[in-house]
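User: Predict structure, ligand arginine.
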Amino acid sequence: MKNKNKTVWGARFNNATSKIFENIGASIDIDKRLFEEDIFGSIVHAQMLVKQKIISKKKGKNIIKGLKKIKKEIKRNKFNFKKKYEDIHMNIEKRLFEIIGDDAGYLHIARSRNDQVITDFKLWIKKASNQIIKSLDDLIKSFLKKSEINIQTIMPGFTHLKNAQPISFAHYLLAYVEMFKRDKKRFLNNIDYINESPLGVGALAGTSYNIDRNFTSKKLGFKKPTNNSIDSVSDRDFALDFLSSASICAMHISRFAEELIIWNSDIFKLIQLNDKMLTGSSIMPQKKNPDPAELIRGRAGKNFGSLQAMLTTMKGLPLSYYKDMQEDKALVFNSYDTLAQSILIANELIKSIKPNKKRMFDLANEGYTTATDFADYMVQNNNLSFREAYKISARLVNYAEKRKKKLNQLNFIELKKLRKDLDKNVMKVFNIENSVNLKTSYGGTSTKNIKKMISKLRKEFKK
Ligand code: ARG
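Assistant: Predicted complex:
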């Protein structure tokens, strides 16, 4: 029967691939994004084949010249990607045949698409992780900037969304800096894990050619070659690591976005957002809505979804390569694109926040936020246990609540009624600035602590 199949692997096939499957099964629309990594990997592979005398210098030269030409074509949008060639690897190989002829057939010695695709993908994820790390750096710097000018801005700190204790707005912002620092570290750790080169493990078993995997590993910027050929082509942990780090980072951003939405609400009015980060309503003329914050709050769902999809794909999958895994690229690319945009928007948001300082201060005085300070004062000055002092402070709150007074509106006579051995000095515990500045324990919200922390972070995140 005539061979109707024009694919690279068509030699054993009597019928062309179903059109329906060709359309769905081709990954070129997605994995063409790997073209630079694919060409880089192929050039290094060809160099190794030459060095090991597996192919001639002339063939190697030809192959590399052809590959470089293809790279230019793709960059200039002059490359015609074809679905019938499935993926980026085959598209490039087919074009290489067109450009250099039969020498192209020597490039795939001692490799398979299975090791080729993960080489490309690992290189890409390394690059993407570095980009995320860079934009997290920018984000952290913006948070630091906003912190520096808000050390003295006092706001209510919340637990259960109820006023808890007064804190500095800067201290709150620095909490996010810690989260983003951990995110950064996660991506950095991933780069370390990913740093083993799979190139040369072939389809799953290794190869009988005298290849030099240390050479390719080094040239490609990996630390060492992977140890086990089967694990190498089966492993997608590096994709999962990326997706999981992206999810956690997106979760942090989502929490930040949510707080901004709450604080910007007409009920809270703790902050104002620049008009740049607000949108209007088509019907209600008065409206200014925090759409960008809402969008990144919601988009965390896309990051989580990609992680979940990838985990589900891998669960129960026997070793080694299966087509199931082809979907990994779309998931990682989507997650990366989503996260990269969310970080950019978060950065715009933090720059555009204006704290409503008076409102923050007034609210920090509401909800008896210094009741704990009062209890602490009695432990430190009146020889009481914390539990005893707690009860007395609770009675004071009840008293104030009945009289519809804030704690800082009570006078010394009223306090004396509650406990005779109180000294006049006690009155300062109801001052929220004092409350903030008493929190001098390491990591606490006192002005002194924050200043120290900011200068430490400034050194860490120099321009
Ligand atoms: N496009 C494929 C993928 O992304 C490349 C590997 C194909 N290998 C195979 N044996 N079909 O997974």
